[in-house]
Amino acid sequence: MRTPLLAANWKMNMGRQAAHDLVNGLLKETSEVKDREMAICPPFHLLADVEKLVAGHPHVYLGAQDLHWEDSGAYTGEVSAPMLLDVGCQMVIIGHSERRAMFGETDETCSKKVAAAISHKLIPILCVGESLEEREAGKTADVVTTQLRGALTGQQIEKGSQIVIAYEPIWAIGTGRTATPEMANETMQILRKTLEEIFSAEIAQEVRLLYGGSVKPTNIAEFMACSDIDGALVGGASLKVDSFAKIVQY
Ligand code: 13P
């Protein structure tokens, strides 16, 4: 049984007051929701504030948006797994397509980051997804399984709950275009089969697979109705109490 997970990726948005209002509003609006989990992934400067706000809400995870694979050292501007633990994180997004496209993230760096997260008992939310050209050329399965194998082969996990995968078609991120639920679910099944090959059938059944890309209150229910979609990674619609609370309450 996979508990639904609705994850908010704030990207490079929000200040301290806005974060305070958003998190308090969300906790109030979703206080009756017990059968699903939430993750909030603010930018680094807000982690300590959000940690205080979500303390005492065990169904709400705190997540970062990236990390460095080394524990410490001369890496100006970087933040490590022990630092994320120190501020109370339980999760960390790795390999978001924006980091792959703009900041040189590769399957190799994702692999090192996933290993660092797992070894420090942080749950990586590993992102995979194809571009429009790749989808139109019929390469979706190839692209996402290569990304998955590149980041996960050789990782040591005992349970599927130690990792989360987010499938985010690049052409659906921030565009208002979404994959159809059928399209997304078909890719999820390919990912789950690949997880079975990398780890085991048991682990593959336990891993939560999130869909991301223009998720809104109006389309979340149809994604959540799919057999292999266990939640969502939400950008734009996670920045307002009303829209993210509705997504959590799908
Ligand atoms: P949008 O929900 O704004 O399309 O962003 C999706 C995303 O990139 C989440 O990580």
Total beta strands = 8
Cα Rg? 17 Å
With strands numbered from the N-terminus, the spatial order across the biggest sheet is 1-2-3-4-5-6-7-8
SS class: alpha/beta
Helix percentage range: 40-55%
What's the main sheet like?
Answer: 8 strands, parallel, barrel
Element-level helix/strand string: EHEHEHEHHEHHEHHEHEH
Mean pLDDT across all amino acids: 97
Global geometry: globular
Low-confidence residue ranges: none
Summed up, the helix count is 11
Bound molecules: 1,3-dihydroxyacetonephosphate
Distance between the termini: 18 Å
Task: Report strand %.
Answer: 15-25%
Characterization of the model:
- By secondary structure, the protein is α/β, with parallel strands linked by helices.
- It is built from 11 helices and 8 strands.
- Strands 1-2-3-4-5-6-7-8 form an 8-stranded parallel beta barrel, surrounded by 5 helices.
- It binds 1,3-dihydroxyacetonephosphate (13P).
- Residues 9, 96, 168, 173-174, 212-215, 233-237 line the site of 1,3-dihydroxyacetonephosphate.
